[in-house]
């Protein structure tokens, strides 16, 4: 009876609360095994943890990749957050200094960077418009139900942290000799050897009348034992960050070089060099940071660069997903409201980096043909033309909506919409030629 009761109490119980289930899942995460893995062991780890065939998990990941694209992101997440067999923590936890993992910090950064485009693609509606969100929800629900029903199976044993270098244990060993007569040399004990030497010619009786060694204790020569070495200094408690050593110069040098590269790119862009666009500048800075992180991995420095690399990578992925070909750092920031009343006030080019542009052409005198170009980096652009003018306009935005004289489109990376409209009175009015280009934002051209 007692044995059965003990087995029931020692067996992990299923949790009933959602929060407890999530916490228990994290505490008993699957471990990526060495045996049976095909790539990184994520599918094999899930199969071993919950007692299902890893082939089923692999098929589910392939289906999630085809329908929605979330399978790749999930696999990378498992690679980052599931510890390997024999590892103390996962690769991401090792990156932030929580323990030891076979995944190096440099490779963990590579996995983080690879996770960003896969997550953006999955959640950006690239496959079947929202399939990534559906795949994420289904995967999360499946893991929750799986852990609720089978979380008590095959729970991984915690890995004992590796002992710190310099720790020592002490044991006292020795061999004992015998002494039964005068002049006998005795024993050695531990690290400090001592000898028994009887300097008398005859044993003297002990005060109690019994001497088990048959020797005079006063004749023993007991040299002082060598004191044991001092115990090692206590280290930090478990989970506490390791004490900081000498600060590496890799992080400071990389950060300074990244600022120089970014400043040079901005200066060249302002000077008219179109290659140094915002995506290219961010890419160059990210390359410098990446090189610094790889170099820091060899000298145990530059970990602070992760905080700079992650937002740069996110910005780079966004700029890569959304075409920013026409974005320029020239033109300033803020709203522009212009109502030219003569040809001298009309600018041939209205260029802006960020902000809304409102251009009203209805106050210009009728007569000579007009041509102007409006370029906006981030913001909405609205142009109002006279009701009777003969307008030829080309409207384009890389991300947003276009309403170009009642001809529209919307989306990301759309082509230009070109319209020729002669107004309410037909051909014969003032000729106006417009080119409106936005990087991010809405474009609207309408009659006044």
> Which percent range describes the beta-strand content?
15-25%
Instruction: Please state the CA-atom Rg, rounded to the nearest Å.
Output: 39 Å
Side by side, the strands of the main sheet go: 3-5-7-13-9-10
| Main sheet summary | 6 strands, mixed
SSE topology string: HHHHHHHHEEHHHEEEEEEEEEEE
Structural class: alpha/beta
Q: How many discrete domains?
A: 3
Number of distinct beta strands:
13
Question: Helicity level, as a percent range?
Answer: 25-40%
Instruction: Determine the N-to-C terminus distance.
Output: 92 Å
Contiguous helical run count: 11
What is the mean pLDDT? 74
The gross shape turns out to be elongated
> Low-confidence parts, pLDDT < 50 over ≥5 residues?
1-15, 125-130, 164-210, 324-329
Labels describing this entry:
5-stranded mixed β-sheet, 16% strand, disordered N terminus, 448 residues, 3 domains, 6-stranded mixed β-sheet, 13 strands, alpha/beta
């Amino acid at each position: 009876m007692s044995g059965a009761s003990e087995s029931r109490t020692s067996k992990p119980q299923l949790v009933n609360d959602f929060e407890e289930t999530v916490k228990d899942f994290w505490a008993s995460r699957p471990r990526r095994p060495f045996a049976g893995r095909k790539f990184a062991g994520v599918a094999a780890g899930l199969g071993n943890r919950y007692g299902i065939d890893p082939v089923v998990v692999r098929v589910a990941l392939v289906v999630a990749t085809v329908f929605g694209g979330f399978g790749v992101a999930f696999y990378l997440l498992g690679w980052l957050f599931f510890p390997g067999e024999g590892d103390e923590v996962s690769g991401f936890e090792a990156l932030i200094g929580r323990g030891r993992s076979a995944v190096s910090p440099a490779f963990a950064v590579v996995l983080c960077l690879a996770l960003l485009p896969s997550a953006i693609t999955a959640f950006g509606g690239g496959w079947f418009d929202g399939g990534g969100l559906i795949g994420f929800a289904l995967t999360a629900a499946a893991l929750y139900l799986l852990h609720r029903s089978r979380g008590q199976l095959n729970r991984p044993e915690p890995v004992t942290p590796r002992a710190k270098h310099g720790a020592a244990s002490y044991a006292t060993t020795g061999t004992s000799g015998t002494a039964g007569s005068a002049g006998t040399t005795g024993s050695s004990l531990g690290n400090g050897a001592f000898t028994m030497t009887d300097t008398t010619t005859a044993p003297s009786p002990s005060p109690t009348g019994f001497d088990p060694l048959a020797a005079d204790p006063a004749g023993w020569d007991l040299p002082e034992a060598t004191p044991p070495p001092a115990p090692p200094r206590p280290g930090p408690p478990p989970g506490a960050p390791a004490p900081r050593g000498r600060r590496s110069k890799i992080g400071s040098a990389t950060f300074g070089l990244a600022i120089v590269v970014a400043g040079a790119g901005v200066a060249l862009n302002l000077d008219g060099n179109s290659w140094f666009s915002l995506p290219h500048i961010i890419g160059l800075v990210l390359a410098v940071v990446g090189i610094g992180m790889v170099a820091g991995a060899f000298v145990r420095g530059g970990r602070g660069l992760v905080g700079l690399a992650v937002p740069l990578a996110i910005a780079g992925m966004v700029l890569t997903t959304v075409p920013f070909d026409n974005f320029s750092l020239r033109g300033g920031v803020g709203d522009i409201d212009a109502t030219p009343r003569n040809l001298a006030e009309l600018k041939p080019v209205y260029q802006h980096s960020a902000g809304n542009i409102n251009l009203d052409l209805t106050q210009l005198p009728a007569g000579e043909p007009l041509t102007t170009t409006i370029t906006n980096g981030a913001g909405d652009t609205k142009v109002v033309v006279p009701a009777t003018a003969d307008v030829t306009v080309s409207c384009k935005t890389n991300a947003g909506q276009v309403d170009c004289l009642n001809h529209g489109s919307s989306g990301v990376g759309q082509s230009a919409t070109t319209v020729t409209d002669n107004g309410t009175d037909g051909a014969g009015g003032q000729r106006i030629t417009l080119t409106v280009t936005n990087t991010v934002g809405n474009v609207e051209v309408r009659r006044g």
